[in-house]
Design goal:
The complex is a heterodimer of chains A (337) and B (318). The two termini of chain A are 42 Å apart. In chain A, strands 6-7-8-3-9-10 form a six-stranded mixed sheet, with helices on both faces. Chain A is globular. With 337 residues, chain A is of the alpha+beta class. Chain B is mainly alpha-helical and 318 residues long. Chain B has two domains: 63 residues, no CATH class; 202 residues, Orthogonal Bundle (MetI-like fold). In chain B, 66% of the residues lie in helices and 5% in strands. Chain B is built from 16 helices and four strands. In chain B, strands 1-2 form a two-stranded antiparallel ribbon. The chains are: A alpha+beta (337), B mainly alpha (318). Chains A and B meet through α2 of A and α10 and α11 of B. Chain B: Keywords: Cell membrane, Membrane, Transmembrane, Transmembrane helix, Transport. Chain B: It holds the Pfam family BPD_transp_1. Chain B: Belongs to the binding-protein-dependent transport system permease family. Chain B: One of its GO terms (biological process) is transmembrane transport.
Chain lengths: 337, 318
C-alpha cells in the first residue's frame, strides 16, 4: 500500500472540463471518498490515477514515484468498476485468478489457488467459484468484482460506485464488509459515490467534488459540522440542511452575511420559541418525524421526536440556537463570526 | 358457462392461430426454396439416360454414373476393342464400360475443388483477420477523420465490384496475378473487407470497453486484453462475418471467369464447362453442384449457433 498524490491535475474532453486543477493526497492506509453528482469528474479522477486516461496537466504520484506517463499495468492499482466488470467468458475462479496470472506477477499455480480461495472465503462466494461469471446475481457479481481487486496487494484500490447497482439491503451489507476488509488490510482506498450515506459510513475523509473541482476535503464530522460553503453543507445529511436568507431572522449579523443554515435536528419546536412558523406536512419515520414548516415564505424542516408536537395546532413557535447556525455570504461561501 | 377469455397467454405473445399461419408460411417457403436442392440431388443420382428421358422420371434407379463422369475422363472405344480388354476390375470401370467407354484418367474437378477451398477459405480468413483489427481500432481509438474513413470503406461497396473489372484485369495481367491463388485471395479479401469492417465494428461496439480497462489495470497490455477478453466475446460476430465472407468468395463467378482459367480456376466457372457426349451431362453437373454446395453448408452448420445472433446483430442490445 502506498500514498497517492495528485498535483494540479486537469483533464478536458473536447470542450468539457472533466477535472480542473485537482490536488489532493490519499494517505497510506486511508479510506477517502469522493462525493459528488453525476458528471462532477469523480470517475475521470479515478481513471486518471489508474492510467486509463492521460492527464492534460499536472502530476500523479504513487508512493512518491511520478506515474503521470506510466501504463496502467505498471501502476499496480486495482479498479472496481460500476458495472460490466467481470470477464464474461471466464468462471468466477478464473476471474479472480486473472490479475494474479498477469505476466508482471510471476506467481506459482499453488500461490494463485490459495489466494483465490482465501478471498472467495472472505467474500462468501467460495461455493460460486465454478460458476460462469454471467450466471450470478447482481450482489454476487459485485462481490467477485471486489474480490478481483482484493486478490492483489495493489498500491491503491480505486472503486467507482461499486455498490450503486445493488439493492438497498445488499448495499448496506457490502458497505460494512468493505469497511471491515479495508481496516483489516490497512488498505489505501479511493472510493467514488454520489450517495452521502456511503460516504459518511465508510470514509476517513470525504472530498466534495463539483464540476471537476475539489471544494472541501475533510473527515466526515468536519464536513457535516463545519462546511466551507452552502454546496458542501447540503451534501451531507437527510433531510437536507435548511438554508434561508439571514434577514428573515431579525438578528444582528455582519453585513456580508447573506444566508443562514441550520440542520433540521437543531430546530426545536416549543411554545417558548421566538419564531412563528406554520406546519405544512409531517412525515413519520417511526423513531422520529420530519416536520415541514413554512416560515416567511421559506420552507424549514425539523427532525423531532413524535411526541414533542401536538397534531392539532398548525401554528407553532420554533427556536434555533445561534451556535447551531452557519453563515454564508452571497457567493455561498462560509462566513465565520 | 361464462365466456371466459384465455388469460394464460400474455397479450404480447402471438395467438395460436397466428402461430399456425406463421408456421404454414415458413413451411411453404421452405418447400419452394428446397425444390432446386431436391432436383440437384435427385439428378446427381440418376443415370444419363434417365436424366434426359421424356416424360421426366421423378423416381428412377439410383446410379453413380454422374459422379463417375465427374471425376474421370473417358474415351469411346469400338465394341471389338472392348472385347479384347480383361473384365472391369472396379465398379466404376463397370459403369463406364456399359457406355462403351474406358477411363482415360482423372478429371480436373478435384484440382478445381481444391482451388475453390484455398481461395474461398483463404479470402475469408484474411477478410475476417483484417476486418477484426480494423473494426477494433475504429471502435476503440480516437482516429482522426474516423467517420470519413468509415464512409470511404463503405463506399467501396456502393458500386458492384465487377464495375472495376477492366482496370483490375489489366492490373492483374501486368502484375502477373492473373490465374493465381494469391491474386484471387487478395481480390476477394478487398471486396469483402468493407462488409467485414462494418459488421465487426457493430459487434465490437457492443462489447463494453470496461473489459479492456479492467484487464489493463489488472496487469495486461492492450494486446493481451484484446486476445484474452475481446476476441472470445466477439466470436459470434466473427463467425457470422466469416459465413457472409465465405458465401461471397465461394460463389463468386464474374471475376473468377475473367481472371482464372487454368491454375487457379474455381468451381463456379468450371462447372458449366462439364460437357457430356452429345449434350450436357446433367448428372455430372448436378453431382458437381452438390459437392460444390457441401462446404458452405457444413461451415454454416458448424457456426449455426453463432449465426442467428449474427444475423439479428444490433437488434439485441444489452
Amino acid at each position: 500500500m502506498s500514498e497517492v498524490k495528485i498535483e494540479n491535475v486537469s483533464k478536458q474532453f473536447g470542450e468539457i472540463n472533466a477535472v480542473s486543477n485537482l490536488s489532493f493526497t490519499v494517505n497510506d492506509g486511508e479510506f477517502v471518498v469522493l462525493l459528488g453528482p453525476t458528471g462532477a469528474g469523480k470517475t475521470t479522477t479515478l481513471r486518471l490515477i489508474a492510467g486509463l486516461e492521460q492527464a492534460d496537466e499536472g502530476k500523479i504520484f504513487i508512493g512518491n514515484e511520478d506515474v503521470t506517463q506510466a501504463q496502467p499495468a505498471k501502476r499496480d492499482v486495482a479498479f472496481v468498476f460500476q458495472q460490466y466488470s467481470l470477464y464474461p467468458n471466464y468462471t468466477v475462479y478464473n476471474n479472480l485468478a486473472f490479475p494474479l496470472r498477469s505476466p508482471l506477477r510471476s506467481l506459482s499455480k499453488d500461490q494463485i489457488d490459495k489466494t483465490v480461495r482465501d478471498i472467495a472465503k472472505t467474500l462468501h462466494i467460495e461455493d460460486k467459484l465454478k460458476n460462469k461469471a454471467t450466471h450470478l446475481s447482481g450482489g454476487e457479481m459485485q462481490r467477485v468484482a471486489l474480490g478481483r481487486a482484493l486478490v492483489r496487494e495493489p498500491n491503491i484500490f480505486l472503486m467507482d460506485e461499486p455498490l450503486s447497482s445493488l439493492d438497498a439491503k445488499l448495499r448496506e451489507e457490502l458497505r460494512l464488509e468493505l469497511k471491515n476488509i479495508q481496516v483489516q488490510l490497512g488498505a489505501t482506498l479511493l472510493f467514488v459515490t454520489h450517495d452521502h450515506v456511503e460516504a459518511t459510513t465508510m470514509a476517513d475523509r470525504i472530498g466534495i467534488i463539483k464540476e471537476g473541482t475539489l471544494i472541501q476535503i475533510d473527515p466526515p464530522e468536519k464536513i457535516y459540522n463545519d462546511p466551507n460553503s452552502v454546496y458542501v453543507a447540503t451534501k451531507l445529511g437527510s433531510p437536507k440542511i435548511n438554508v434561508i436568507p439571514s434577514r428573515l431572522l431579525n438578528m444582528e449579523l455582519p453585513a456580508n452575511v447573506e444566508y443562514t443554515a441550520f440542520r433540521p435536528e437543531k430546530v426545536s419546536l416549543n411554545s417558548k420559541g421566538t419564531l412563528d412558523a406554520r406546519i405544512e406536512t409531517i412525515q413519520n419515520l417511526g423513531v422520529e418525524e420530519i416536520v415541514s414548516m413554512s416560515f416567511m415564505g421559506e420552507i424549514i424542516r425539523a427532525v423531532v421526536k413524535p411526541e414533542s408536537i401536538s397534531k392539532s395546532d398548525k401554528d407553532i413557535k420554533i427556536t434555533i440556537r445561534k451556535d447551531d447556525m452557519l453563515f454564508f455570504d452571497k457567493e455561498s461561501q462560509r462566513v465565520y463570526l | 358457462m361464462s365466456a371466459s377469455r384465455d388469460t394464460t397467454r400474455s397479450p404480447l405473445e402471438p395467438s395460436a392461430t397466428s402461430r399456425r399461419i406463421a408456421a404454414f408460411l415458413i413451411i411453404l417457403y421452405a418447400s419452394i426454396a428446397f425444390i432446386p436442392m431436391v432436383l440437384i440431388v435427385s439428378t446427381a443420382f440418376k443415370s444419363v439416360t434417365d436424366a434426359i428421358s421424356y416424360p421426366p422420371k421423378i423416381i428412377s434407379e439410383p446410379s453413380l454414373e454422374g459422379f463417375v463422369n465427374l471425376f474421370t475422363q473417358r474415351t469411346r472405344q469400338s465394341a471389338e476393342y472392348l472385347e479384347t480388354l480383361p473384365p472391369p476390375k472396379t465398379w466404376y470401370e463397370e459403369i463406364v464400360r456399359k457406355r462403351n467407354m474406358v477411363i482415360a484418367g482423372p478429371s480436373r474437378f478435384i484440382q478445381r475443388f481444391v482451388n475453390s477451398i484455398i481461395i474461398g477459405f483463404g479470402a475469408t480468413f484474411f477478410s475476417v483477420f483484417f476486418g477484426t483489427i480494423a473494426a477494433y481500432a475504429f471502435s476503440r481509438f480516437r482516429i482522426p477523420l474516423k467517420n470519413d474513413l468509415l464512409f470511404f470503406v463503405l463506399s467501396t461497396r456502393m458500386f458492384p465490384p465487377i464495375a472495376a473489372a477492366v482496370p483490375i484485369f489489366l492490373m492483374y495481367r501486368k502484375l502477373g496475378l492473373s490465374d493465381s491463388h494469391l491474386g484471387m485471395i487478395m481480390l476477394y479479401t478487398v471486396v469483402n473487407l468493407s462488409l467485414s469492417v462494418w459488421l465487426l465494428k457493430g459487434f465490437i461496439d457492443e462489447i463494453p470497453k470496461e473489459y479492456e480497462d479492467a484487464a489493463m489495470v489488472d496487469g495486461y497490455s492492450r494486446m493481451s486484453a484484446f486476445f484474452k477478453i475481446i476476441l472470445p466475446q466477439a466470436a459470434t460476430g466473427i463467425a457470422a462475418t466469416a459465413i457472409f465472407c465465405l458465401i461471397f468468395a465461394w460463389n463468386e463467378y464474374a471475376f473468377a471467369i475473367l481472371l482464372t482459367f487454368r491454375e487457379a480456376q474455381t468451381l463456379p466457372p468450371f462447372i458449366p464447362t462439364i460437357i457430356g457426349e452429345g449434350g450436357l451431362d446433367w448428372p455430372a453437373i448436378s453431382a458437381a453442384t452438390m459437392i460444390f454446395l457441401l462446404p458452405v453448408v457444413v461451415f454454416t452448420v458448424l457456426l449455426k449457433k453463432h449465426l442467428l445472433r449474427g444475423i439479428t446483430f444490433g437488434a439485441v442490445k444489452r
